[in-house]
Amino acid sequence: MGLMLAFFRAYRWQTVLMMLALLLSGVAEGVGVSALLPLLNIALGPEAGSAIPGASGEDQSEFEQVILDVLAFFGIAPTLGSMLLIILGGVTFKSVFLLLAQRQVGYTAAQVSTDLRLQLLRAILRSKWEYFLHQPVGRLTNAMASEAQRAATAFVNGTTALTFLIPGIIYAGVAFALSWRASLVAIAAGVVVIGLSHFLVNITRKAGMKQTRLMKSLMANLTDTLQSVKPLKAMSREYLADQVLAHDTNLLNKSQRRQVLSAAMLNSGQELMFTAFICLGIYVAMEKFDMALTTVMVLVVALGRAFSYFGKVQKQYQKLAEGESAYWSLTESINAAETAQEDLKGGIAPRFDKSLTLENVHFSYDKHAVFKGLSLQIDAGSLTTLVGPSGSGKTTIIDMAIGLLRPQSGEVLLDGVPLRDLDISQWRRMIGYVPQDTILLHDSILHNVTLGEPSLGAEDVERALRAAGAWEFVNKLPQGLDTVVGERGGKLSGGQRQRIVIARALINQPRLLILDEATSALDKDTEEAVTQALDDLKGQLTILAISHNQAMVTGADTVFRLSEGSAVRSEAASQSGFAK
Ligand code: ADP
Questions:
Q1: Which range is most confident: 139-143, 229-233, 523-527?
Q2: I need a surface site. Which of 19, 93, 544, 580 has the fewest CB within 10 A?
């Protein structure tokens, strides 16, 4: 129920429209069925109906009299034709309003899943780096794909339950008007059945919760396993991955079976018991209250429809209970990511004319201390290379410079202003970042450089490619900038891909170019082409590189050797550029 309230609060006017359409559809159906009694009396003759003197049992003639009065008020004669027309009109209006209500439900459901997906996506992309790093990719994929879908389906089930509840109440109202005592007996018994069979809904709810939990863990494990499948296959250990994944998959199967069984039990149990209660209602009406046959026939229809609708309400509610946990799990992920938002805007506009400085920086990942008082300075316009063994903290320095990570104490300063006082978003727009993996999109070179930014044209791309030393080979390609680079950029060599990625980092004319091990995996020829491009860039912007590459060390203005949490500065061996 909490789920439906949350949805109704979020989609207020859609809910009002939907409820209105449902109500009108229910009223139309009620009007149609009310015409049944006069119709039967007309069809079967007065002998079978309430018009027989002495056969008026309890208050059935009163109800019929009300209907006849209403018809008279509208100037409608109670003839066979007019009654049939009213029944037909009732069903027509019911169908039209129901269609409108269901269309509204469908549209809102699509909006629900879209909104949930976008909320999660935006919250994750805006979250702090430390938070993002701890998010298993599979879990996010699962939330975007399966949980959002299940949440939207749960919304449809909840509103469909309402779609059935309203006509159910109207039929029950008609039954009460015909004979409130007989209806009370039958409906009270029906409520008891619904109450007793509620345990089946609870079984389904628990199965749903279990599936939500299992899907999360299964998808997280699956993505992890697929990313490291090569060593597993190479050592013939795939069975290890199989064991982990098969275990969760089998548990999922078990929980689905439980869900199917409880749904089937509710389905068949309900029908049997509701029929029993209708029989009870008929017996009470005919034997105890001596009601006319025509009234009893309409009562049977009204009670039968009322029970059928109430049964459907419960079945839909059972389905809602199954999917509800997916919605809560998804909103939990959204809330957690929103709580971990980065504070990007609102600071001072950054300037980078003098230096980027780390001053007495202490940084730990959880309890693992990486720096305990690190200080270093990167001069604007210089090429600085960070070297040191793996795990010595090179990437951590870069992440702090970008503002992705914040030191627990000490300062990162840009031209003397602490990074935390700056508008980080503007600062990041002044950065060009080249990662180690140079995976390109299966698209044109132009798109790979602009990444779809509409304000950038072919001239900007050419300028960036020239600066990255890539223009010469791109220009020689038969389709030039429109050449499609193939899956993951497979049609280009490693060095060519690397220079395209450098052009991508340069296209926005950054003040700081960061090369995060971008030259480590290159062969000799490629390395020369890339370092030549970087040599040409020297002086135009600041370059901060992590590299074990000799050329990047000898070509640097400053080299910091990191080890055991401290940085030792050594000035460049050569001031004339890269060693060739
Ligand atoms: P480098 O780039 O020099 O290889 P890093 O800056 O990546 O070093 O890492 C420095 C240390 O911090 C390493 O010991 C590494 O294990 C640890 N570390 C890096 N990232 C994380 C993280 N997200 N959580 C916990 N520890 C981390």
A1: 139-143
A2: 580
Ligand 1: centre distance to CA 391 (Å): 5
Instruction: Delimit the CATH 1.20.1560.10 region(s) of the chain.
Output: 2-339
pTM above 0.70, yes or no: yes
Ligand 1 and 392: CB distance under 6 A: yes
Span from the CA of 126 to the centroid of ligand 1 (angstroms): 22
From atom 25 of ligand 1, which residue's Cα is the shortest distance away? 365
Q: Are 316 and 217 in contact (CB under 8 A)?
A: no
- Strand order through the sheet with 368-379: 368-379, 355-365, 409-414, 417-418
> Which of 32, 35, 25 has its CA nearest to residue 94?
25
Instruction: Express as a percent the part of the chain with pLDDT over 70.
Output: 94
Report d(CA 169, CA 25) in Å as an integer: 12
CB-based burial of residue 293 (10 Å sphere; 0-12 exposed, 13-18 middle, 19+ buried)? middle
Could you tell me if the CB of 369 is within 6 A of ligand 1? no
Residues forming CATH 3.40.50.300 domain(s) in the chain: 355-571
Can you give the pLDDT at residue 51? Answer: 40
497 lines ligand 1 (CB under 6 A): no
Report the greatest alpha carbon distance in the chain. Answer: 120
Distances (CA, A) of 494 to 106, 477, 491, 522, 549: 49, 16, 10, 7, 16
Q: How far is the CA of 548 from the centre of ligand 1 (A)?
A: 17
Ligand 1 in contact with 396 (CB < 6 A)? yes
Ligand 1 pocket, residue 70 CB under 6 Å:
no
Ligand 1 centre distance from Cα of residue 383 (Å): 23
CA distance 167 to 545: 70
Class of domain 355-571: alpha beta
In this structure, whether the domain defined by 2-339 belongs to CATH 1.10.3720.10 is answered with no
The minimum-distance atom of ligand 1 relative to the CA of 368 is 26
pLDDT at 319 over 90: yes
Amino acid making up residue 442: H
| Rounded CA separation 144/141 (Å) | 5
What's the alpha-carbon Rg for the chain, to the nearest Å?
A: 36
- The residue whose CA is least distant from atom 16 of ligand 1 is 391
Tokens for 357, please give them.
Answer: 């400085």
367 CB under 6 A from ligand 1?
no
How far does residue 370's CA lie from ligand 1's centre (Å)?
8
User: What are the residues whose beta carbons fall under 8 Å from the beta carbon of 337, sequence distance 6 or more?
Assistant: 120, 123, 124, 126, 127, 131
